[in-house]
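Board notes, transcribed. Complex of a protein with 2-keto-D-gluconic acid.
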Amino acid sequence: MKDIEILSLGPFYTPAFELMEQEFTVHKLWQAKDPAGLIAEVGPRIRGIQAMHANKTKAELINSLPKLEIISCFGVGVDGVDLAAAKKRGLVVSNTPEVLNECVADLALGLTIATVRRISLGDRYVRANKWLKGPMPFTHSLGGKVMGILGYGRIGKAIAKRAEAFGMHIVYNGRKPQADVAHKYYASLTEMARDCDVLVAICPGGAATRHIVNAEVMQALGPEGTLINVARGSVVDEQALVKALSEGRLGAAGLDVFEDEPRVPEALFAMDQVVLQPHVASATHETRMAMGVLTADNLRAHFSGKPVLTPVI
Ligand code: 8YV
């Protein structure tokens, strides 16, 4: 398939990227000194885009590639792609669901435990030799507490399974209640926040969910409540979050994603009730390899005349 030319908007896991490069002719926009020049030169021949959520796949780019057939996204979230523009052009868009469920759920639980039990603070406490002066303040138990999951999809369910193993009770909020789910459903996110101890955001990003975790939801979660975000930074009103945490109106937060990555509000750095991660929920060798292989598998399927394995549209 070396005659098929792909435009890569951003690099992914190198060993998997190299496999894709062995198969297709890949032009790396992210390496180009003159991106507009590269598009002008190879654009008329490009039949596929490979992208990630951080690379905004805008209508302008989509419409500048006359032979474009497919956008293969590395990652489950496709909030970086202008789906309306892709639909208008009749393009195929694929993503990499399922293969990252377990890893993302692992980090969501890891962040929950680290935040509620103040694991990072304990580590800093020992390193700073504070233990010599006395024990660290007590934290709270997870067992018996309520975890509210915002976005009860495939990853949400994998998070629930783990939290239940820690003795937590699960409730959820989403667009609608799900058949065959025994957990309590809340139509109102604010009401769920009022009733739960830990609120985990794992819903899709994009315009529909922008800032749905707002000041009112944080207020409802309250001074003993913990917010975990492994979804998208856009889901949480970050300014309201910094304010609620600094005023003690929200108890704690464990965050893997931010509104303007890789920039993180510096006000969070000094907060002991906060655990920060650099968007790594799916970032293990195993999972990133599986995501990369699926990104290329979708391209191969499409250019072999078959349906992609994991279509979005
Ligand atoms: C990755 C993600 O960080 O799948 C997603 O939507 O956010 C993560 O798994 C991302 O794909 C890397 O760009």
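The chain has two domains: 5-99+286-303, 101-276. The chain has a mean pLDDT of 98.
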